[in-house]
């Protein structure tokens, strides 16, 4: 399907130039000569990209950016600017325009900007689709948990609307820091707001500044063109900085300046740029110890720590384990299809008492592994233990001894509550009568 582009300019020769250039490149084009026609055509045509002149007979192009971006297709705006109005074009990008081009036109520059803006628009559509999935499918709605600790965190998130302060999320590996960061973004931002994720440990020190802030053409060897940084791409939205303790010390002062002033320079650039982007930083490290060791700036820590969420490990919120188990079972049923599988009551109890050193991530991995290997409708803990090793917090033998003790007690308690009726006991435990009889004999239960 052809990409749809709207060109808004009061000069007929400019509109004709774009029509000829873009139709030849197999784009679908519509034009407008003033602001009123621009809004009407955008609503009818639903373009993906709008080339917008700032000087229109009935409107200032700057005033059209927000209404254009609010139409159903949420187009990317590329400003058409005369050489003398570059400052206005920069202002336009701060208001949400993607980029700008200047007169007289450079066809190569137009093609590069158009290609990048379409790529960005595709990312936006994917992001929007994910939001719709999250709204429509309960599996993706929010951070899972109903323990008092998690309920307090959720109630605090709601108070962050209409703020732009940075947020620090701490917690052990696997506790769900990234999921919580995404929920914060989706809760407090507009649906069209972008979200960009960066794992600070995956970027080499010499490329980090360019990745974060972008660079100008010729800024360094290999910089063949201008590049927008991740912070700029997330304008009006959120940048999630995972493993913030790994950010190079040489970059920390520049990040601090951006957080405080909302301004930055691209690498090799001399023009100060401004963008409204919220920073959410994640870490499993003790940043105060990192400060003492000389690896992290104290002033950056204090600025990030304005709003602090600490995610407790799973062993400190055991009430959430059963809820998470059910969530993961729903998730894998949706993903793998076929027969819906459940965890037996022995498994729920065992999982509730296991220490989970790998936290929710370990729990999810164990359930998924058992889900794949299990042939029946019920996952039993024996299958989970045999499907893969648990974290090496104890020996396999120790784990099995714990399991057997828990399993025996549950069978005894259930038999007692069912007055010794083995058939009803098997139904309550969601295991076969044959399996129950085997367990009774194995554990020497006399009832």
TrEMBL record:
Keywords: ATP-binding, Nucleotide-binding, Phosphoprotein, Transcription, Transcription regulation. GO terms for molecular function: ATP binding; sequence-specific DNA binding. Residues 143-372 form the Sigma-54 factor interaction domain. The modification 4-aspartylphosphate is found at residue 53. InterPro entries: AAA+_ATPase (IPR003593), AAA_lid_NorR (IPR058031), CheY-like_superfamily (IPR011006), Homeodomain-like_sf (IPR009057), HTH_Fis (IPR002197), P-loop_NTPase (IPR027417), Sig_transdc_resp-reg_receiver (IPR001789), Sigma_54_int (IPR002078). It holds the Pfam family HTH_8. One of its GO terms (biological process) is regulation of DNA-templated transcription. Gene3D superfamilies: 1.10.8.60, 3.40.50.2300, Homeodomain-like (1.10.10.60), P-loop containing nucleotide triphosphate hydrolases (3.40.50.300). Residues 4-118 form the Response regulatory domain. This is Sigma-54 dependent transcriptional regulator.
């Amino acid at each position: 399907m052809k990409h749809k582009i709207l060109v808004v300019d009061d000069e007929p020769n400019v509109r004709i130039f774009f029509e000829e250039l873009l139709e030849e490149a197999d784009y679908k084009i519509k034009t407008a000569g003033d602001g009123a026609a621009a809004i009407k055509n955008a609503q009818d045509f639903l373009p993906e990209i709008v080339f917008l002149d700032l000087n229109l007979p009935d409107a200032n192009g700057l005033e059209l950016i927000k209404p254009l971006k609010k139409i159903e297709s949420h187009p990317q705006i590329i400003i058409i600017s005369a050489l003398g109005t570059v400052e206005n074009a920069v202002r336009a990008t701060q208001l949400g325009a993607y980029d700008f081009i200047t007169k007289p036109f450079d066809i190569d520059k137009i093609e590069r900007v158009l290609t990048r803006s379409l790529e960005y628009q595709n990312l936006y559509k994917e992001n929007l689709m994910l939001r719709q999935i999250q709204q429509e499918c309960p599996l993706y709605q929010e951070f899972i948990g109903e323990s008092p600790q998690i309920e307090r965190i959720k109630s605090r998130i709601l108070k962050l609307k209409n703020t732009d302060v940075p947020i620090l999320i701490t917690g052990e590996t696997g506790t769900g820091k990234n999921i919580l960061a995404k929920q914060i973004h989706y809760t407090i931002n507009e649906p069209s707001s972008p979200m960009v994720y960066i794992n600070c440990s995956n970027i080499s020190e010499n490329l980090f500044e360019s990745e974060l802030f972008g660079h100008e053409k010729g800024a360094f060897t290999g910089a063949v063109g201008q590049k927008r940084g991740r912070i700029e791409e997330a304008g009006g939205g959120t940048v999630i900085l995972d493993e913030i303790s790994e950010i190079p010390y040489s970059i920390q002062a520049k990040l601090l300046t951006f957080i405080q002033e909302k301004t930055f320079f691209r690498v090799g650039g001399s023009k100060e740029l401004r963008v409204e982007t919220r920073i959410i930083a994640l870490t499993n490290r003790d940043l105060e110890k990192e400060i003492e060791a000389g690896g992290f700036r104290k002033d950056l820590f204090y600025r990030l720590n304005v709003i602090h969420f600490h995610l407790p490990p799973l062993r400190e919120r055991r009430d959430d384990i059963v809820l998470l188990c059910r969530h993961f079972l729903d998730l894998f049923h949706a993903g793998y299809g076929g027969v819906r599988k459940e965890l037996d009551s022995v498994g729920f109890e065992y999982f509730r008492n296991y220490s989970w050193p790998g936290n929710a991530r370990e729990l999810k991995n164990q359930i998924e592994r058992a889900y794949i290997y299990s042939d029946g409708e019920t996952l039993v803990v024996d299958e989970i233990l045999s499907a893969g090793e648990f974290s090496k917090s104890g020996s396999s033998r120790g784990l099995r001894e714990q399991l057997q003790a828990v399993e025996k007690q549950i069978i005894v308690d259930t038999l007692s509550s069912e007055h010794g009726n083995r058939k009803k006991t098997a139904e309550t435990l969601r295991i076969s009568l044959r399996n129950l009889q085997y367990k009774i004999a194995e554990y020497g239960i006399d009832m």
